[in-house]
Amino acid sequence: MSCFLSNSSLGKKLVMSVTGCFLVLFILFHMSMNVTAIISPEAYNTICEFLGANWYALAGTVVLAAGVLIHFLYAIILTLRNYKARGQRRYAVTVKEPGVAWASKNMLVLGFIVLAGLLLHLFNFWSKMQLVELMGQHTNSLGYSPADGAALIRYTFSQWYYVVIYLVWFAALWFHLTHGVWSMFQSVGWANDTWYPRLKCIANIIATIVFLGFAVVVLVYFFCPCLAGAC
Amino acid sequence: MNFTLKIWRQKDAKSKGAFETYKVENISADTSFLEMLDILNNDLVHQGKEPVAFDHDCREGICGMCSLHIDGQAHGPSQGATTCQIYMRKFKDGATITIEPWRSAAFPVIKDLVVNRSAYDQILQAGGFISVRTNSVPDANAIAIPKPDADESMDAAACIGCGACAATCKNGSAMLFVAARVSSLAKLPQGRVEGARRAKAMVAKMDELGFGNCTNTGACQAECPKQISITHIARLNREFLSAKFKD
After folding, report:
1. Which class would CATH give B117-246?
2. CATH 1.10.1060.10 spans which residues of chain B?
3. Number of A:B CB contacts under 8 A?
4. pLDDT at A53
5. How far is B95 from chain A (nearest CA, A)?
6. Secondary structure of residue B70 in the 3-state scheme
7. Is residue A165 within 8 Å of residue A113, measured between CB atoms?
8. B176-192, pLDDT tens digit by residue?
9. How far apart are CA A14 and CA A5, in angstroms?
10. ipTM of the complex
11. Which of the residues A22, A162, B51, B176 has an alpha carbon 20 to 30 A from that of B235?
């Protein structure tokens, strides 16, 4: 079985689909957690404390990192193979085929933007929260408690360039999900002509919920931090 | 009608190749695209020049030979039609038309616009058949097949193996072709028996021949002259994965 998951084109797509599904579920959980920060910073910090550097949060982090790594590595492997299969000489004239979404042809580029945003996000938050706790320290480089996630959000999104960068990141994620979510059903064979419009609609809804859920926290903390109880 | 043609000319498989420009004049709007190329070739022969090599056979949209990439589209500007079903009235008078061969690593150019599509034959030989003794013709109602299944099977069986799917796909993937062949047999009781073996064998051969991986863009179904749906790709995925998990 390990053979077909690493050797066969359809096996590799199955891995992309399963890891993608796992990452979508995590993103939905993360987005729900973030929204708490604009309702009650205290409640958000309670969640941060609950997660912290506890064994279950660490186990979750390791599994999550593995999910991202496998999804990314398989994307690279698949794309390199595709590039080779396309041949060295390309068409002199190309047109946009009807019904083909822009995102579907740019998933790797979108994935790179999402990954770059993730690395920045790990620097902005993870390195000042869970990593600080792991290292046995009680305050991070900004002088906050590692469980004071709300203060970190307030600090990060008081800077306009971070707001812009994060919104671009969320937009790339939106495009990635509009194709990725319905595509993961197609890759495991759970799709047909009746369900394509439904699956694409579900994908757009999930992508939009994720975008709005993440963006609203950034915008509220930038424009009116008092609304988030941060005054 | 008058046209300027930018046609890919390549002496043989090893040559580099380049575009050459030709003029064709006084073409009737009701001339088919291939007839227009015939007229061009006639002129070239009269001028003592090498005619343009291009694949064609039935000229009625069922053989899948006329594999030309015209103005950025497999089989030209019409949806659900092969090159031989395109007429010059689809183009504007005075237009410049760019004609290229399929571009895919698995379909190497043999000469000018002719490519080697034997990779599809090899995939078919790997499992695109049923191994039953036919004997005499059975009674038409001996095996009852639900109408929706028969319809779906026939939709998939409409595939003419022209190669437009792999040639259009940005990944050079042959998934729509393989899926159509697997699906057309999987929906019928006679083909169902060998469904698992067929899916595994054809996918293995597809991978071995260097075709790319499907990323579900749907470009293949948009350019397929027989308008075969990617729903068959979903069925191939299902057939293949369930076969592998049963191993």
Report:
1. mainly alpha
2. 117-246
3. 142
4. 85
5. 14
6. strand
7. no
8. 999 999 999 999 998 99
9. 7
10. 0.92
11. A22
